[in-house]
Write a structure and sequence with these properties.
By secondary structure, the protein is α/β, with parallel strands linked by helices. The chain has two domains: about 130 residues, D-Maltodextrin-Binding Protein, domain 2, CATH 3.40.190; about 90 residues, Periplasmic binding protein-like II (D-Maltodextrin-Binding Protein, domain 2). The protein is built from nine helices and 15 strands. The strands form five sheets. It has a five-stranded mixed sheet. The chain has a three-stranded parallel sheet with strand order 5-1-6. The protein has a three-stranded antiparallel sheet with strand order 2-3-4, with helices on one face. The protein is globular. The N and C termini lie far apart (about 75 Å).
Length: about 270
């Protein structure tokens, strides 16, 4: 009889232990909707701090946090339509054509909303206010503004709005690169006179000491807005817009913005 009682107590303790383990696992890894549809999202993990890969291969950055927040039940897309985000690494200059071919459902990679791009793809409501800046070596005192760039060697990223802007500089010699780290290094090596790139990415790189010896010149050259890009007539666009609105209203967007930029986020337009 004693042995039977002990056996029952052992069973009870084991059952309680299993229950506690299940609860702990659920708190660490919240249950996902088994019927959630995969949402293939392209990103170029070379645009620090918006998207980059850690040493162990994990994706991090402002855009990554935003997209993951959009897919969380607390915000939005998963709640509205049942999506499970699947990131796919893709070079920036190949994103527009990939969206046109509908090989991915969306793309997030600091993609500026422009009239030209809207001819072939669609965009969500703006999720980030940005702009282009001129970066030079710290010892360069000759380049002070747009007019100072005439005839200079300029580095830009392929397919970016910086590359489009550089074409308006008279007699400029333009060098194109696949990523920011490449053209910043070329600037430090003295192969180009200046870089035209996203102001926030440039300031972040300088602040974190990855590119010492570089400074940003004068005011922003442009005012731009980033959007989540999708193919034309995307069935997911409405849910994405509702998700962004939810993150803006519930304070999640502000938390993500302050995490990466240590500042108050600016007001964003609805469209």
């Amino acid at each position: 009889m004693v042995k039977l009682v002990n056996f029952k107590w052992q069973q009870l303790i084991l059952s309680l232990s299993c229950l506690l383990l299940i609860i702990a696992c659920q708190s660490l890894y919240p249950a996902t909707n088994p019927d959630a549809k995969p949402l293939k999202v392209a990103t170029d993990p070379t645009f620090v701090p918006f998207e980059f890969q850690t040493a162990d291969g994990k994706l991090k950055g402002f855009d990554i946090d935003l997209m993951n927040a959009l897919a969380s039940p607390a915000a939005s897309i998963a709640k509205v339509a049942g999506f499970a985000v699947q990131f796919e690494s893709l070079p920036f200059d190949g994103m527009i054509s990939t969206l046109q071919a509908k090989r991915v459902d969306a793309a997030i990679s600091g993609i500026t909303i422009t009239a030209e791009r809207l001819k072939t793809i669609a965009f969500s409501r703006p999720y980030f206010k940005a702009g282009l800046a001129i970066a030079v070596r710290e010892d360069n005192q000759n380049i002070k503004d747009f007019n100072s760039l005439k005839g200079k060697k300029i580095a830009v990223q392929i397919g970016s709005t910086g590359a489009d802007f550089a074409k308006t500089i008279p007699n400029a010699k333009i060098s194109t690169f696949n990523s920011g780290p490449e053209f910043f290094q070329d600037l430090l090596n003295g192969n180009v006179d200046a870089v035209i790139s996203d102001a926030f990415a440039t300031l972040y790189a300088i602040k974190n000491g990855k590119f010492k010896g570089i400074r940003v010149v004068a005011d922003l050259l442009t005012e731009e807005y980033y959007g989540i890009a999708t193919p034309k007539d995307s069935p997911h666009l409405d849910a994405i817009n509702k998700g962004i609105a939810a993150l803006l209203s519930n304070g999640t967007y502000k938390q993500i913005y302050q995490k990466w930029f240590d500042a108050e986020p600016p007001q964003l337009p609805d469209s």
